[in-house]
Write a structure and sequence with these properties.
The protein has about 650 residues and is of the alpha+beta class. It has helices at about 50-70, 75-80, 95-110, 120-130, 140-145, 155-160, 160-180, 180-200, 210-225, 225-240, 270-285, 290-305, 340-355, 360-370, 415-425, 450-455, and strands spanning about 5, 10-15, 35, 40-45, 390, 430-435, 435-440, 445-450, 460-465, 470-480, 485, 495, 500, 505-510, 515-525, 530, 545-550, 550-555, 570, 580, 595-600, 620-630, 640, 645. Helix 11 packs antiparallel against helix 12 and helix 11 (about 270-285) runs parallel beside helix 13.
């Protein structure tokens, strides 16, 4: 196992073993049921979906993000502070956060692969930030130049603490992977200023966009300094007392309508809500306060039980990027921002650590395989901001709201860097340990260093085509006498271990204590399942969705015969769907298409609202091909839908 040299920011050495922690690492005293394995304990294989995706992120997405920080204005904005750029401020005033998220992404990648080509950019950017930072620690490219008299004057929309949160998380990444501390030190100087201004006995204020809370807890975990945990707790305690002031979106938008411990549902701006909930979970873990965890459980049940799309997308309303009412989930008007899916993944991970309940990992998987995977083009350089589940015929163009094709960047570019930092650290979410046993939470082709996890010695090789193939082979290169548990997804109704039907719920238990394990074979049955929407989802009534394993499928215009309008296609819920033997080659993920049939019923030209009459079965029968939702939009722009009308 390679060890990072803490004495130099860019070197590694093998003289002594040292584990590398990932993005969320509770302290030894934390009240959690599960703990993440060290970041370098798991290595994804390039043959698997997650390994191939992570490699594409390193080779294409990260360099693309770096280039766009320059072209999109974020770095020139920062140079305005040092007097090296004379142009106007470009973009939104929180664009600094994009710089920090990319720095974080590269930091996590430094713990996984050789980032030598990116190091000059990192060094130049850190030098720029150091020169831009004020002597008192303050750092913000907008306020320092364009509104110095408004510093900390508009916490509701200023995003100053939000940006600081991302700077701190970048610092955590570099400190943990290679021992480089200069980024974290910048963040700590800024955080000290914030503590002096808004700390426990100071001015009562909260940031309009939560993020600082979870970052401060992780800084506490890195430094051991209780000061940062106290400050995070202060911001959680102050939330919900309407301190952000009146605004056109109302207090719910900022989660400032009700004290955190009294909240009953997920509401307001989706990303804000989920980032806050993640921070609350972190504070609860480190303080042991049950009331905070119970509040998070209520928020989670609301968000994932009544307000989540089948793809894992969260946030149905466009106007304020917000959660709607329970079951307000229109497919064609889904906002489902990429950042919200990522935030939901992060929230669920913390709830998994807190409780050990596999349902949280199920929802992480749903989002990852569908809503998050769908966000990026196959070459890794174009992105969806929002993720509709239906795109109507004649809809075209690049829009943040219901686009027909991905864009290379956005004026509000929060999603691409967010995706990059998740993917560069994704292997850190694959497994957990507790009570001397190891749990596999995300199944993919990978290798696990059992010695690094503390539950054995040697390597565990996981070989699988999951999520497209349900067969999983586990091979130990040394006899394993410990306990291994493999998550059994809720959708997996038929599971066998070494050919024997499994009855374990939640996790499949492989116990080597009585008979050492050398190999085990798990088979998750993956039939095609036709799913109906909840009766209260009015916008999807009379339709069905097609799934296989954790993957949601969709119908694209590109797979219909010429002249057929997608809106005229209806399916038979009883129809039999077959799985293509050959994968969709362009994906590089081994993902198969599904084949079936449908009927086309062209409506009569006439009134938009005609008198009702009983429908008559009929229409022309056609062969149809469905592809994973994760892959839509990679051919010519055209209509698409997940929920298909029933004939």
């Amino acid at each position: 196992m390679l060890v990072r040299d803490r004495s130099h920011p860019h070197r590694s050495r093998p003289e002594q073993e040292e584990l590398v922690n990932g993005p969320v690492t509770p302290t030894a005293a934390a009240s959690v049921a599960e703990r993440p394995v060290p970041l370098d304990a798991v290595r994804f294989a390039p043959e698997g979906m997650l390994g191939a995706w992570q490699h594409r992120n390193a080779e294409a997405t990260l360099p693309h993000c770096i280039a766009r920080l320059e072209a999109g204005g974020a770095l020139p904005n920062m140079r305005r502070v040092t007097g090296e750029h004379a142009g106007p401020f470009v973009g939104f005033h929180f664009s600094d956060s994009d710089i920090y998220k990319v720095l974080e992404a590269v930091g996590w990648e430094a713990g996984r692969s050789d980032i030598t080509p990116l190091l000059p950019w990192v060094d130049e950017t850190v030098d720029l930030l150091q020169r831009a930072q004020r002597a008192d620690g303050y750092l913000n490219s907008h306020f320092q130049v364009d509104a110095p008299d408004r510093i900390f004057a508009d916490l509701r929309w200023g995003h100053e603490l939000y940006c600081l949160g991302h700077l701190l998380q970048a610092g955590v990444a570099w400190a943990r992977t290679v021992g480089r501390t200069d980024i974290l030190e910048m963040g700590l100087r800024f955080a000290a200023l914030v503590d002096e201004r808004f700390g426990p006995s100071c001015e009562a204020g909260v940031c309009g966009h939560p993020e600082i809370e979870t970052a401060l807890v992780e800084v506490h975990r890195v430094t051991g300094d209780e000061r940062w945990l106290r400050l995070a707790e202060v911001f959680v305690d102050r939330r919900g007392h309407r301190s952000v002031g009146e605004d056109r979106f109302g207090y719910h938008y900022f989660q400032d309508h009700t004290p955190v411990r009294e909240v009953t549902d997920a509401t307001g701006h989706a990303v804000r809500q989920l980032y806050l909930a993640a921070g609350v979970a972190d504070v609860a873990a480190e303080t042991g306060e049950r009331a905070l965890l119970e509040a998070d459980e209520r928020i989670w049940r609301s968000a994932f039980g009544e307000k989540q799309y089948i793809t894992g997308g969260l946030g149905s309303r466009h106007r304020d990027e917000a959660f709607g009412d329970p079951f307000e989930l229109p497919p064609d008007r889904a906002y489902a921002e990429t950042c919200a899916a990522i935030a939901g993944f992060q929230f669920s991970w913390r709830m998994l650590l807190a409780t050990g309940d596999g349902r949280y990992a199920d929802e992480m998987e749903r989002a990852l395989i569908n809503a998050i995977a769908e966000s990026t083009s196959l070459d890794g350089t174009c992105f969806f901001y929002s993720s509709p589940l239906q795109l109507r015929t004649h809809r075209d163009g690049v829009h943040e709201q219901a686009p027909s094709e991905r864009a290379a960047w956005y004026e509000c570019a929060c999603c691409p860097p967010n995706l990059a930092r998740l993917l560069s650290s994704l292997h850190g979410y694959a497994a957990t340990v507790a009570d001397g046993r190891l749990r596999l939470q995300l199944l993919t082709d990978c290798t696990v260093d059992l010695g690094a996890t503390g539950v054995g010695s040697g390597l565990l090789h996981v070989r699988t085509g999951y999520p497209w193939d349900g067969d999983v082979v586990l091979r130990f290169d040394e006899p394993f006498t410990g306990r291994l548990e493999v998550r059994r997804p809720a959708w997996a109704t038929e599971v066998a271990v070494d050919g024997v039907p499994a009855t374990d719920a939640g996790y499949l238990v492989l116990d080597g204590s009585t008979s050492p394990l050398s190999e085990a074979r798990i088979s998750f049955g993956m039939p095609v399942v036709v799913r109906a929407p909840h009766p209260r989802i009015d916008a999807a009534r009379g339709t069905v969705a097609i799934t296989r394993g954790p993957a949601v499928y969709c119908l694209e215009q590109a797979d219909l015969p010429g002249g057929v309008v997608l809106e005229d296609v209806a399916v038979d819920p009883a129809a039999v769907w077959s799985v293509d033997a050959a994968p969709i080659e362009a994906s590089g993920w081994g993902a198969p298409a599904l084949r079936g049939w449908a009927r086309v019923r062209t409506p009569d030209a006439g009134e938009t609202y005609a008198p009702w009459h009983p429908s008559v079965p009929g229409g022309d029968e056609i062969d149809v091909r469905l592809i994973p939702y994760a892959l839509w939009g990679n051919r010519e722009p055209g209509a698409m839908r997940v929920w298909l009308p029933v004939r």
